[in-house]
Protein backbone atom coordinates (compact mmCIF):
# COMPACT_ATOMS: atom_id res chain seq x y z
CA UNK A 1 0.00 0.00 0.00
CA UNK A 2 1.18 3.54 -0.74
CA UNK A 3 1.23 5.87 2.26
CA UNK A 4 1.90 9.59 2.00
CA UNK A 5 3.29 11.26 5.13
CA UNK A 6 3.16 15.08 5.11
CA UNK A 7 5.45 16.44 7.80
CA UNK A 8 6.34 19.81 9.29
CA UNK A 9 10.04 20.55 9.67
CA UNK A 10 12.00 22.82 12.01
CA UNK A 11 11.01 26.01 10.13
CA UNK A 12 7.49 26.21 11.61
CA UNK A 13 8.57 29.21 13.71
CA UNK A 14 9.11 31.21 10.50
CA UNK A 15 5.33 31.25 10.08
CA UNK A 16 4.38 32.57 13.52
CA UNK A 17 1.86 33.72 14.63
CA UNK A 18 -0.23 31.48 12.33
CA UNK A 19 1.65 28.29 13.25
CA UNK A 20 1.49 28.49 17.03
CA UNK A 21 -1.55 26.22 16.79
CA UNK A 22 -1.30 24.57 13.35
CA UNK A 23 1.34 23.12 11.03
CA UNK A 24 2.55 25.14 8.05
CA UNK A 25 0.77 22.84 5.61
CA UNK A 26 -2.64 23.92 6.94
CA UNK A 27 -2.11 27.47 5.66
CA UNK A 28 -4.30 28.71 2.82
CA UNK A 29 -2.44 29.67 -0.35
CA UNK A 30 -4.49 30.52 -3.41
CA UNK A 31 -7.71 28.50 -3.31
CA UNK A 32 -6.38 25.48 -1.39
CA UNK A 33 -4.21 24.79 1.64
CA UNK A 34 -0.66 23.59 1.10
CA UNK A 35 -1.73 20.14 2.33
CA UNK A 36 -4.62 19.82 -0.11
CA UNK A 37 -2.35 20.80 -3.00
CA UNK A 38 -0.01 17.92 -2.11
CA UNK A 39 -2.67 15.27 -1.51
CA UNK A 40 -4.31 16.05 -4.87
CA UNK A 41 -1.03 15.11 -6.57
CA UNK A 42 -1.00 11.65 -4.94
CA UNK A 43 -4.68 10.59 -5.12
CA UNK A 44 -4.11 6.83 -4.80
CA UNK A 45 -2.23 7.00 -1.49
CA UNK A 46 -3.34 6.97 2.13
CA UNK A 47 -2.44 10.30 3.81
CA UNK A 48 -0.96 10.63 7.30
CA UNK A 49 -0.07 14.00 8.84
CA UNK A 50 2.97 14.49 11.08
CA UNK A 51 3.28 17.44 13.46
CA UNK A 52 4.27 18.62 16.94
CA UNK A 53 2.61 16.47 19.59
CA UNK A 54 0.79 19.34 21.29
CA UNK A 55 -1.13 20.34 18.13
CA UNK A 56 -1.94 16.79 16.98
CA UNK A 57 -5.33 16.37 18.69
CA UNK A 58 -6.73 19.64 17.30
CA UNK A 59 -5.34 18.85 13.86
CA UNK A 60 -7.07 15.47 13.96
CA UNK A 61 -10.38 17.13 14.94
CA UNK A 62 -10.22 19.68 12.14
CA UNK A 63 -8.95 17.57 9.26
CA UNK A 64 -10.41 14.13 10.12
CA UNK A 65 -7.04 12.76 8.94
CA UNK A 66 -4.70 10.30 10.59
CA UNK A 67 -2.17 12.27 12.61
CA UNK A 68 1.17 11.02 13.98
CA UNK A 69 -0.06 7.55 13.11
CA UNK A 70 2.47 4.82 12.32
CA UNK A 71 0.72 1.60 11.40
CA UNK A 72 2.98 0.21 8.70
CA UNK A 73 3.32 -3.13 6.94
CA UNK A 74 6.69 -4.35 5.59
CA UNK A 75 5.60 -4.10 1.95
CA UNK A 76 4.11 -0.59 2.27
CA UNK A 77 5.69 2.05 0.05
CA UNK A 78 6.20 5.20 2.12
CA UNK A 79 6.67 8.72 0.81
CA UNK A 80 7.48 11.51 3.29
CA UNK A 81 6.93 15.06 1.97
CA UNK A 82 7.85 18.36 3.60
CA UNK A 83 4.62 20.33 4.09
CA UNK A 84 6.38 23.52 2.97
CA UNK A 85 6.78 22.09 -0.53
CA UNK A 86 5.02 24.12 -3.19
CA UNK A 87 3.24 21.47 -5.21
CA UNK A 88 3.63 21.61 -8.98
CA UNK A 89 2.15 19.23 -11.55
CA UNK A 90 5.51 17.52 -12.09
CA UNK A 91 6.11 16.91 -8.37
CA UNK A 92 5.07 13.21 -8.48
CA UNK A 93 7.64 12.61 -11.24
CA UNK A 94 10.42 14.09 -9.11
CA UNK A 95 9.35 12.90 -5.65
CA UNK A 96 7.78 9.49 -6.05
CA UNK A 97 6.96 6.25 -4.32
CA UNK A 98 9.76 3.76 -4.84
CA UNK A 99 10.94 0.38 -3.61
CA UNK A 100 14.40 1.91 -3.45
CA UNK A 101 15.44 4.32 -0.73
CA UNK A 102 15.54 7.89 -2.00
CA UNK A 103 16.04 11.27 -0.35
CA UNK A 104 15.55 14.63 -2.03
CA UNK A 105 17.06 17.99 -1.10
CA UNK A 106 16.30 21.54 -2.17
CA UNK A 107 19.66 23.15 -1.54
CA UNK A 108 20.43 21.82 1.94
CA UNK A 109 16.78 21.52 3.01
CA UNK A 110 14.93 18.22 3.15
CA UNK A 111 12.09 18.00 0.61
CA UNK A 112 11.22 14.39 1.29
CA UNK A 113 12.24 10.76 1.13
CA UNK A 114 10.89 7.41 -0.02
CA UNK A 115 11.42 4.13 1.81
CA UNK A 116 9.84 0.68 2.15
CA UNK A 117 7.97 -0.16 5.34
CA UNK A 118 10.39 -3.03 6.02
CA UNK A 119 13.32 -0.57 6.07
CA UNK A 120 11.71 2.18 8.15
CA UNK A 121 13.20 0.89 11.41
CA UNK A 122 16.59 2.38 10.50
CA UNK A 123 15.11 5.91 10.72
CA UNK A 124 11.88 5.37 12.67
CA UNK A 125 12.96 7.29 15.78
CA UNK A 126 13.69 10.35 13.66
CA UNK A 127 10.36 10.24 11.82
CA UNK A 128 8.44 10.71 15.08
CA UNK A 129 9.73 14.31 15.32
CA UNK A 130 10.80 15.68 11.95
CA UNK A 131 10.15 19.19 13.31
CA UNK A 132 13.43 18.84 15.22
CA UNK A 133 16.54 19.82 13.29
CA UNK A 134 18.67 17.00 14.75
CA UNK A 135 16.29 14.39 13.32
CA UNK A 136 16.27 16.02 9.89
CA UNK A 137 20.07 16.00 9.84
CA UNK A 138 20.18 12.38 11.01
CA UNK A 139 17.94 11.21 8.15
CA UNK A 140 20.00 13.18 5.63
CA UNK A 141 23.07 11.29 6.83
CA UNK A 142 21.42 7.85 6.71
CA UNK A 143 19.88 8.05 3.21
CA UNK A 144 21.68 8.94 0.00
CA UNK A 145 20.61 12.46 -1.06
CA UNK A 146 19.64 13.72 -4.50
CA UNK A 147 19.19 17.42 -5.26
CA UNK A 148 16.08 18.47 -7.19
CA UNK A 149 14.87 21.80 -8.50
CA UNK A 150 11.72 22.45 -6.46
CA UNK A 151 10.66 25.22 -4.10
CA UNK A 152 9.91 25.39 -0.39
CA UNK A 153 8.05 28.34 1.08
CA UNK A 154 10.05 30.00 3.86
CA UNK A 155 7.92 32.80 5.36
CA UNK A 156 4.32 34.02 5.57
CA UNK A 157 5.00 37.07 3.40
CA UNK A 158 6.07 34.77 0.56
CA UNK A 159 2.58 33.25 0.60
CA UNK A 160 0.99 36.70 0.51
CA UNK A 161 3.22 37.93 -2.32
CA UNK A 162 2.67 34.78 -4.37
CA UNK A 163 -1.07 34.59 -3.77
CA UNK A 164 -2.31 36.28 -6.99
CA UNK A 165 -0.49 33.82 -9.26
CA UNK A 166 -1.38 30.90 -6.99
CA UNK A 167 -5.11 31.67 -7.29
CA UNK A 168 -4.70 31.57 -11.07
CA UNK A 169 -2.85 28.23 -10.92
CA UNK A 170 -5.42 26.67 -8.58
CA UNK A 171 -8.30 27.89 -10.73
CA UNK A 172 -6.81 26.19 -13.79
CA UNK A 173 -6.21 22.96 -11.83
CA UNK A 174 -9.77 22.91 -10.49
CA UNK A 175 -11.41 24.01 -13.75
CA UNK A 176 -12.03 20.48 -15.12
CA UNK A 177 -13.98 19.66 -11.93
CA UNK A 178 -16.20 22.77 -12.01
CA UNK A 179 -19.69 22.71 -13.50
CA UNK A 180 -19.94 26.08 -15.24
CA UNK A 181 -23.08 25.08 -17.18
CA UNK A 182 -25.25 24.71 -14.06
CA UNK A 183 -23.78 27.76 -12.34
CA UNK A 184 -26.66 30.15 -13.04
CA UNK A 185 -29.26 27.51 -12.16
CA UNK A 186 -27.72 26.45 -8.85
CA UNK A 187 -26.80 29.94 -7.62
CA UNK A 188 -28.67 33.26 -7.46
CA UNK A 189 -27.07 35.88 -9.69
CA UNK A 190 -29.05 39.12 -9.89
CA UNK A 191 -29.58 40.43 -13.41
CA UNK A 192 -28.17 43.80 -12.31
CA UNK A 193 -24.84 42.31 -11.23
CA UNK A 194 -22.03 42.96 -13.70
CA UNK A 195 -19.54 40.20 -14.55
CA UNK A 196 -16.53 40.99 -16.71
CA UNK A 197 -14.84 38.06 -18.48
CA UNK A 198 -17.47 35.54 -17.24
CA UNK A 199 -15.56 32.51 -18.54
CA UNK A 200 -13.06 33.20 -15.75
CA UNK A 201 -15.70 33.38 -13.00
CA UNK A 202 -17.05 30.40 -11.07
CA UNK A 203 -19.86 30.72 -8.53
CA UNK A 204 -20.67 27.76 -6.29
CA UNK A 205 -24.12 26.35 -5.64
CA UNK A 206 -26.56 28.28 -3.44
CA UNK A 207 -24.37 31.39 -3.52
CA UNK A 208 -25.97 34.82 -3.97
CA UNK A 209 -24.65 37.67 -6.09
CA UNK A 210 -26.80 40.73 -5.39
CA UNK A 211 -27.60 43.70 -7.62
CA UNK A 212 -24.87 46.33 -8.13
CA UNK A 213 -22.09 43.80 -7.57
CA UNK A 214 -19.13 43.91 -9.96
CA UNK A 215 -17.05 40.77 -10.52
CA UNK A 216 -14.12 41.81 -12.70
CA UNK A 217 -12.09 38.85 -13.93
CA UNK A 218 -10.23 40.71 -16.67
CA UNK A 219 -6.99 40.61 -14.65
CA UNK A 220 -7.49 37.10 -13.27
CA UNK A 221 -10.09 34.48 -12.30
CA UNK A 222 -12.64 34.77 -9.51
CA UNK A 223 -13.76 31.69 -7.58
CA UNK A 224 -16.76 32.01 -5.26
CA UNK A 225 -17.46 28.95 -3.11
CA UNK A 226 -20.78 27.45 -2.03
CA UNK A 227 -23.44 29.33 -0.03
CA UNK A 228 -21.46 32.56 -0.16
CA UNK A 229 -23.15 35.98 -0.32
CA UNK A 230 -21.75 38.96 -2.22
CA UNK A 231 -23.83 41.95 -1.16
CA UNK A 232 -24.68 45.02 -3.21
CA UNK A 233 -22.02 47.68 -3.77
CA UNK A 234 -19.16 45.20 -3.72
CA UNK A 235 -16.43 45.17 -6.35
CA UNK A 236 -14.20 42.09 -6.55
CA UNK A 237 -11.20 42.17 -8.84
CA UNK A 238 -9.47 38.99 -9.90
CA UNK A 239 -7.58 36.94 -9.18
CA UNK A 240 -9.68 36.32 -6.07
CA UNK A 241 -11.08 33.47 -3.98
CA UNK A 242 -14.14 33.72 -1.73
CA UNK A 243 -14.65 30.64 0.45
CA UNK A 244 -17.80 28.70 1.31
CA UNK A 245 -20.41 30.55 3.40
CA UNK A 246 -18.45 33.80 3.44
CA UNK A 247 -20.20 37.17 3.23
CA UNK A 248 -18.69 40.11 1.37
CA UNK A 249 -20.65 43.04 2.76
CA UNK A 250 -19.72 45.87 0.41
CA UNK A 251 -16.49 47.56 -0.54
CA UNK A 252 -13.51 46.83 -2.73
CA UNK A 253 -11.81 43.43 -2.77
CA UNK A 254 -8.69 43.87 -4.88
CA UNK A 255 -6.73 41.29 -6.82
CA UNK A 256 -4.76 38.66 -4.94
CA UNK A 257 -7.26 38.13 -2.10
CA UNK A 258 -8.10 34.71 -0.67
CA UNK A 259 -10.93 34.85 1.86
CA UNK A 260 -11.45 31.50 3.54
CA UNK A 261 -14.67 29.90 4.75
CA UNK A 262 -17.24 31.69 6.92
CA UNK A 263 -15.63 35.14 6.89
CA UNK A 264 -17.45 38.49 7.00
CA UNK A 265 -15.46 41.04 5.03
CA UNK A 266 -16.10 44.62 3.94
CA UNK A 267 -14.20 47.85 3.34
CA UNK A 268 -11.05 47.74 1.23
CA UNK A 269 -8.88 44.63 1.07
CA UNK A 270 -5.92 44.12 -1.23
CA UNK A 271 -3.66 41.10 -1.84
CA UNK A 272 -4.43 39.49 1.54
CA UNK A 273 -5.31 36.06 2.91
CA UNK A 274 -7.98 35.33 5.53
CA UNK A 275 -7.63 31.77 6.81
CA UNK A 276 -11.29 31.51 7.82
CA UNK A 277 -14.07 32.43 10.30
CA UNK A 278 -12.79 36.01 10.69
CA UNK A 279 -14.53 39.39 10.59
CA UNK A 280 -13.55 42.63 8.90
CA UNK A 281 -17.11 43.84 8.63
CA UNK A 282 -16.54 47.59 8.62
CA UNK A 283 -14.68 50.26 6.67
CA UNK A 284 -10.90 50.32 6.84
CA UNK A 285 -8.01 49.12 4.70
CA UNK A 286 -6.16 45.81 4.88
CA UNK A 287 -3.34 45.11 2.44
CA UNK A 288 -0.61 42.51 1.87
CA UNK A 289 -1.55 40.73 5.10
CA UNK A 290 -2.25 37.26 6.47
CA UNK A 291 -5.13 36.92 8.96
CA UNK A 292 -5.74 33.81 11.07
CA UNK A 293 -9.05 32.30 12.21
CA UNK A 294 -11.57 33.91 14.58
CA UNK A 295 -10.02 37.36 14.19
CA UNK A 296 -12.24 40.43 14.62
CA UNK A 297 -11.12 43.80 13.25
CA UNK A 298 -12.99 46.73 14.77
CA UNK A 299 -14.45 49.51 12.64
CA UNK A 300 -11.85 51.58 10.74
CA UNK A 301 -8.99 49.26 11.63
CA UNK A 302 -6.38 50.01 8.97
CA UNK A 303 -2.89 48.72 8.29
CA UNK A 304 0.11 50.17 6.50
CA UNK A 305 1.70 47.94 3.85
CA UNK A 306 4.28 50.43 2.52
CA UNK A 307 6.85 52.54 4.37
CA UNK A 308 6.89 56.27 3.64
CA UNK A 309 10.58 56.07 2.71
CA UNK A 310 9.96 53.17 0.30
CA UNK A 311 12.52 51.02 2.11
CA UNK A 312 12.20 47.25 2.34
CA UNK A 313 10.16 46.02 5.29
CA UNK A 314 11.57 44.10 8.26
CA UNK A 315 9.43 41.73 10.34
CA UNK A 316 10.17 40.56 13.89
CA UNK A 317 10.10 36.76 14.31
CA UNK A 318 11.23 34.94 17.45
CA UNK A 319 12.98 38.09 18.66
CA UNK A 320 14.92 38.67 15.43
CA UNK A 321 14.42 41.27 12.72
CA UNK A 322 14.05 39.53 9.36
CA UNK A 323 14.51 41.51 6.15
CA UNK A 324 11.63 40.52 3.86
CA UNK A 325 13.36 42.02 0.80
CA UNK A 326 9.92 43.38 -0.12
CA UNK A 327 8.50 46.90 -0.32
CA UNK A 328 4.89 45.88 0.37
CA UNK A 329 4.31 43.92 3.57
CA UNK A 330 1.23 44.37 5.75
CA UNK A 331 0.33 42.67 9.04
CA UNK A 332 0.29 39.10 10.34
CA UNK A 333 -2.49 38.36 12.81
CA UNK A 334 -2.72 35.13 14.81
CA UNK A 335 -5.97 33.35 15.65
CA UNK A 336 -8.44 35.12 17.94
CA UNK A 337 -6.79 38.55 17.60
CA UNK A 338 -9.18 41.44 18.30
CA UNK A 339 -8.66 45.11 17.41
CA UNK A 340 -10.67 48.02 18.80
CA UNK A 341 -12.22 50.74 16.65
CA UNK A 342 -9.79 53.04 14.88
CA UNK A 343 -6.75 50.80 15.37
CA UNK A 344 -3.85 51.61 13.03
CA UNK A 345 -1.36 48.81 12.40
CA UNK A 346 2.28 49.52 11.56
CA UNK A 347 3.99 48.17 8.44
CA UNK A 348 5.01 44.54 8.93
CA UNK A 349 3.50 44.19 12.43
CA UNK A 350 3.27 40.68 13.90
CA UNK A 351 0.47 40.20 16.47
CA UNK A 352 0.37 36.91 18.35
CA UNK A 353 -2.48 34.51 19.06
CA UNK A 354 -5.26 35.62 21.41
CA UNK A 355 -4.19 39.26 21.63
CA UNK A 356 -6.63 42.13 22.18
CA UNK A 357 -5.44 45.61 21.14
CA UNK A 358 -7.52 48.76 21.52
CA UNK A 359 -7.39 52.48 22.21
CA UNK A 360 -7.28 53.75 18.64
CA UNK A 361 -4.36 55.40 16.92
CA UNK A 362 -1.11 53.97 15.59
CA UNK A 363 0.46 50.87 17.10
CA UNK A 364 4.12 51.73 16.55
CA UNK A 365 5.31 48.39 17.89
CA UNK A 366 6.29 45.84 15.23
CA UNK A 367 5.70 42.81 17.48
CA UNK A 368 3.01 42.13 20.08
CA UNK A 369 3.25 38.79 21.94
CA UNK A 370 0.46 36.24 22.11
CA UNK A 371 -2.14 36.73 24.86
CA UNK A 372 -1.49 40.46 25.24
CA UNK A 373 -4.08 43.04 26.28
CA UNK A 374 -3.82 46.80 25.74
CA UNK A 375 -2.48 49.27 23.22
CA UNK A 376 0.23 51.82 22.53
CA UNK A 377 -0.06 53.20 26.08
CA UNK A 378 0.88 49.83 27.52
CA UNK A 379 0.33 46.09 27.41
CA UNK A 380 -0.40 43.48 30.04
CA UNK A 381 -0.95 39.74 30.01
CA UNK A 382 -4.41 38.65 28.88
CA UNK A 383 -5.71 36.29 31.57
CA UNK A 384 -6.04 32.81 30.09
CA UNK A 385 -9.41 32.09 31.71
CA UNK A 386 -10.89 35.27 30.25
CA UNK A 387 -9.44 34.52 26.84
CA UNK A 388 -10.92 31.01 26.84
CA UNK A 389 -14.31 32.34 27.92
CA UNK A 390 -14.36 34.89 25.09
CA UNK A 391 -13.11 32.37 22.52
CA UNK A 392 -15.89 29.97 23.51
CA UNK A 393 -18.51 32.73 23.20
CA UNK A 394 -17.20 33.78 19.78
CA UNK A 395 -17.40 30.24 18.43
CA UNK A 396 -20.86 29.76 19.96
CA UNK A 397 -22.11 32.70 17.85
CA UNK A 398 -21.28 30.57 14.78
CA UNK A 399 -22.87 27.44 16.29
CA UNK A 400 -19.46 25.95 17.01
CA UNK A 401 -17.86 24.74 20.22
CA UNK A 402 -14.45 25.40 21.73
CA UNK A 403 -13.30 21.83 22.23
CA UNK A 404 -11.32 20.44 25.15
CA UNK A 405 -8.43 19.80 22.80
CA UNK A 406 -8.45 23.44 21.69
CA UNK A 407 -8.44 24.59 25.31
CA UNK A 408 -5.46 22.35 26.06
CA UNK A 409 -3.65 23.65 22.99
CA UNK A 410 -4.23 27.29 23.92
CA UNK A 411 -2.96 26.60 27.45
CA UNK A 412 0.18 25.09 25.94
CA UNK A 413 0.76 28.08 23.64
CA UNK A 414 0.13 30.40 26.61
CA UNK A 415 2.98 28.70 28.47
CA UNK A 416 5.27 28.59 25.42
CA UNK A 417 4.91 32.34 24.91
CA UNK A 418 5.02 33.40 28.57
CA UNK A 419 8.61 34.69 28.40
CA UNK A 420 7.72 37.05 25.53
CA UNK A 421 5.25 38.80 27.84
CA UNK A 422 7.80 39.18 30.65
CA UNK A 423 9.19 42.17 28.72
CA UNK A 424 6.09 44.29 29.43
Strand content: 25-35%
Provide a count of the helices.
10
Q: What proportion of the residues is helical, as a percent range? A: 10-25%
How many domain regions? 2
Low-confidence residue ranges:
none
The CATH superfamily title of the largest domain: Hexapeptide repeat proteins
Rg for CA atoms: 22 Å
CATH architectural group of the largest domain: 3 Solenoid
Shape label: globular
Nearest-integer average pLDDT: 95
From the helix content, strand content and strand pairing, which structural class follows?
alpha/beta
CATH class of the largest domain: Mainly Beta
Largest sheet geometry = 10 strands, parallel
Classify the fold: give the CATH topology of the largest domain.
UDP N-Acetylglucosamine Acyltransferase, domain 1
Note the gap between the termini.
Answer: 54 Å
Question: Strand tally, please?
Answer: 38
Descriptors:
424 residues; alpha/beta; Spore Coat Polysaccharide Biosynthesis Protein SpsA, Chain A; UDP N-Acetylglucosamine Acyltransferase, domain 1; 2 domains; ten-stranded parallel β-sheet; nine-stranded parallel β-sheet; globular
Provide a descriptive summary of the structure in words.
The protein has 424 residues and is α/β, with parallel strands linked by helices. The chain has two domains: 2-154, Spore Coat Polysaccharide Biosynthesis Protein SpsA, Chain A, CATH 3.90.550.10; 157-421, UDP N-Acetylglucosamine Acyltransferase, domain 1. It has ten helices and 38 strands. A hairpin with a 2-residue loop joins strand 28 (314-317) and strand 29. Helix 2 runs antiparallel to helix 9 (404-416). The radius of gyration is 22 Å and the shape is globular.
